[in-house]
Prior knowledge:
Elements: E1 2-5, E2 9-15, E3 21-29, E4 37-40, E5 44-47, E6 50-56, E7 64-74, E8 77-88, H1 96-103, H2 111-129, E9 140-144, E10 150-153, E11 156-176, E12 179-182, E13 188-190, E14 201-206, E15 216-223, H3 230-245, E16 253-256, E17 260-263, H4 269-275
Parallel strand pairs: 1-8
Antiparallel strand pairs: 2-6, 3-4, 3-7, 5-6, 7-8, 9-15, 10-11, 11-12, 11-14, 11-15, 13-14, 16-17
Amino acid sequence: MITAAAGQVAALVWEAGAVLAAPMVTIVPTAGGDPLVGPTAAGLGVSGTTYTYVWQVPAAAPEGPYTAVLDGTDGATPVEVELAVFVTAEPVYASLDAIKDALKITDNDRDALIADRLSAASRQIDRATGRRFWLNTEPTARVINPRGKVFCDDDGAHLLVKDVGDVAGLLVEVGRTAAWTDVTGSVEPEPTDALDEQRPVTSLLRASWPVGIGQRVRVTARWGWPQVPAVVSQATALQATRLFKRKDSPEGITGSAEWGVIRLSRVDPDVHALIEHLIIPGIG
């Protein structure tokens, strides 16, 4: 099963086992209802017997399971291949299948419950670190009060900003609400090699920043991380597994014949150890 988020894109891949005539894709809620996509051949990629489709999940898509169907014909024989997709309200940092493998669950009966725990674990990672590890689809503007967010050295003035995961479309302006001046050309995103290393830009370097009363900086960018770090995926999987198991221990206590009674802590120390270096100072 693929986990996708409303408002984000999901890469769907089917292995049909044959080269199909008139292949079409349809995406419908598993519980029934009108298709969100198709039937359509538009956007369907073909490479031998492998078919791909990049689904822009609607921002208004309700959370829950969906079925993506590839159908066509192999000669006179109808072929239909289904792919399960679970849509969450916001992006998650581990796959549903990874959690099921860790829990040794092979059926689909508890997918909704596991997806709920996975979503909750992802948001716990956000809160614990003070940042988020998914990237806006489009650039959005944020107005920043530079007071207390600028430090100077021999290179110039560094304005601390929220994580920027893509500088394509970056726009930096200074001034006030009614009058903004574009200064993008005089700004250097930092660290300079951050995006090459799949890490975010966290400051903007310029000769100086206005810090007078009422002065603001408006930054338009794609906020978040370029991609989810492997340690965040690991931490999320651990936390989601713990949250799922907690349903069997409402008082925070579990046990086994081998280990006896064990109290489940609210904060998994292994999770904290994985993400500790990502926590913004003052958050954790």
